[in-house]
Antibiotic biosynthesis monooxygenase (Streptomyces aureus), 116 residues
Amino acid sequence: MAKLQSLDPHTPMFAQFKEKTGPIVLANTFFVPKERAESFLALFRRQAEFMKAQPGFLSLQMHKGTADSQLLMNVAVWESTEALATAFGSPEFQRMAAEFPDDIVSYPHIFEQIDL
């Protein structure tokens, strides 16, 4: 299973699930060794199809780092933290998440939009 690390050590993603708010953006940066990139994306596509079918899902994009970077970043928009937490906690999603190799590192964080 991928290692989950917090971008903000004072506010891990699981603590953010307790904040009842929305819409929200999940930004999840992954460190993926080059030799795992194709298999990671194949599994991620399966997860994405599952998530797209969940209540409260709005959109999803995947980005890759430039200049031979080993980083990928998923940006997903959800109606609420509750919807994301329910989908994330589902047994089917957890089974897929457990398939990621241990050398994948995930840095998920939940954000709200700021009007400028």
Observations:
- The beta strands are 3-4, 24-31, 57-64, 71-78, 105-111.
- The helical segments are 13-16, 37-52, 81-89, 91-97.
- The first strand starts at residue 3 and ends at 4.
